[in-house]
Amino acid sequence: MRHKPKAVVLDVIETCFAIDPLDEKLSELGLPAGSLKVWFPRVLRDAFALQVTGTYKGFAEIATGALASLLAENKIEPNAEKMEGVIESFAALPIHPDVKEGIQLLRAAGIRIAALTNGSATTTRKMFAGAGLEDAIEKFISIEEVKQWKPAAAVYLHAAKQLDLAPADLALVAAHDWDIDGAVKAGLTTAYIARRQPRGSSAMSPPDVTAHTLPEAARALLALPG
Amino acid sequence: MRHKPKAVVLDVIETCFAIDPLDEKLSELGLPAGSLKVWFPRVLRDAFALQVTGTYKGFAEIATGALASLLAENKIEPNAEKMEGVIESFAALPIHPDVKEGIQLLRAAGIRIAALTNGSATTTRKMFAGAGLEDAIEKFISIEEVKQWKPAAAVYLHAAKQLDLAPADLALVAAHDWDIDGAVKAGLTTAYIARRQPRGSSAMSPPDVTAHTLPEAARALLALPG
Predict the structure, then answer these.
(1) Per-residue pLDDT for A1 more than 90?
(2) Min distance A181 CA to chain B CA atoms (Å)
(3) Is A53 within 8 Å of B182 when comparing Cβ atoms?
(4) Chain B partners of A204 at a C-beta cutoff of 8 Å?
(5) Do domains B7-18+93-222 and B21-90 have the same CATH topology?
(6) Can you name the residues that pair with A174 across neighbouring β-strands?
(7) Which residues of B touch A (CB under 8 A)?
(8) Which of B32, B140, B145, B222 gets the most CB atoms within 10 Å of its CB?
(9) Is the peptide bond before B151 cis (omega within 30 degrees of 0)?
């Protein structure tokens, strides 16, 4: 039986920050509209494939490699500077409008909050700072510290250790079913935010809580037995 | 230094059989045109994510889960029968027109040929039988036998074992950079066929041979020093 967590780790991209503006950035490279929906799953596919073979590479390297490959597929000559611009624009993604209230709800209830990202800690800090929420986040935890990608158990266990908590006292909030699946298997409590995807894949472990916004997820986590 | 392989394992989907007709199958479910490019990387992303957490699920289960999720995202009620129809239509994908000649070239040079698929062995046999090439394939090797997905090393090593060969005497031919990467790391010789993707991601190990068709890949593999 899951209990109320002592801390929450928030996934960052898509969960807290809307990724949609990146589609325009890709269009500026000459890619057809909607290319974000093609590129982003490929970035994750490649990252997870490398995790399967035991090779760690960071977000920027994998994302750039997949982007160059997609550009070539569309007969567009890769341009290093423009590709770098796309990666850098992650730092300027807009926060989902409900995130601030969700963070306030958790903090008011005495729940500690950290970010847990497959991206870089530096970019993540910039993103929350840009949204005026830097001070609400106790730690910006990145996979860079363990050189493994979520959904590897090592990442969630590292987050729990960084917060000095047992995995069962920590909850992951994420908008990705594969992230929820990994956290469930690592022993965390989980809350799924159905942003773009109303439901996760049935091949993945179900979350403890399903919500549409961070406040809704926060309320459900706070309602778990102490 | 790589040497001429004693046997070749052919990746199946996209490498030997064109996947494009599936886009129409997805449109018949009500999904927008181009959805194949969104769905298929997600299927692989999910499979690799599950591989990362040490959970084996077969192709049909993962593909169906990702499809139901994509349908929900498009506000289309999932229909079990229609989704099954999509999965079944993999068995009827058309063979790339160059595959037969490539297989003949390899066979004429005394090279043994097997198929190595992340799909099911039964479906793969049906696909090659439909193309009149069943007898040219010595073994239909599926990840089902090791309950791990490519690019896990165990799969390529299993294939080498099934063919009673050292990994260095076996070559993988594939149209996916992550498949090449896994095979390189497992010690196989590799040939990349640039079908949809002119170049693989720079985050992945480069192949020994790059070609546009199977005959071209075959000739390059046969030209390696004995």
Answers:
(1) no
(2) 8
(3) yes
(4) 46, 49-50, 65
(5) no
(6) A192
(7) 34, 37-38, 41-42, 44-46, 48-55, 57, 61-62, 64-66, 68-69, 72-73, 149, 151-153, 177-178, 181-182, 185, 196-204
(8) B140
(9) yes
Which long-range CB contacts under 8 A does A131-137 form with residues at least 24 apart?
Answer: A131/A95, A131/A99, A131/A100, A132/A100, A133/A95, A133/A99, A133/A100, A133/A103, A136/A103, A136/A104, A136/A107, A137/A10, A137/A113
Q: Would you call A198 and B73 a contact, using CB atoms and an 8 Å cutoff? A: yes
| Rounded Cα–Cα distance for residues A72 and A83 (Å) | 13
Q: Is the pLDDT of residue A166 over 90?
A: yes
B20 interaction partners in chain A (CB closer than 8 Å)? none
Q: Mean pLDDT throughout A207-217?
A: 98
ipTM strictly over 0.95?
yes
Count how many pairs of residues, chain A against chain B, have C-beta atoms within 8 Å: 140
CATH architecture of B21-90: Orthogonal Bundle (1.10)
CATH of domain B7-18+93-222: 3.40.50.1000
Exposed, middle or buried by CB within 10 Å (0-12, 13-18, 19+), for A95?
middle
Task: Break chain A into its structural domains and give their ranges.
Answer: 7-18+93-222, 21-90
What pLDDT does residue B8 have? Answer: 98
Contact list, B203 vs chain A (CB under 8 Å): 46, 50, 57, 61-62, 64-66
Give residue A196's pLDDT. Answer: 86
Residues B119, B100, B2: CA angle, nearest 5 degrees:
75
For residue A80, which phi and psi values (nearest 5 degrees)? -55, -40
Task: Render pLDDT for A68-105 as a digit per residue (tens, 0 to 9).
Answer: 999 999 999 988 999 999 999 999 999 999 999 999 99
User: Does the distance separating the beta carbons of B44 and A45 come in below 8 Å?
Assistant: yes
- CA A15 centroid distance within chain: 6
pLDDT at B226: 86
Q: Is the CB of residue B120 less than 8 Å from the CB of residue B59? A: yes
Q: Which residue of A has its CA nearest to B194?
A: A73
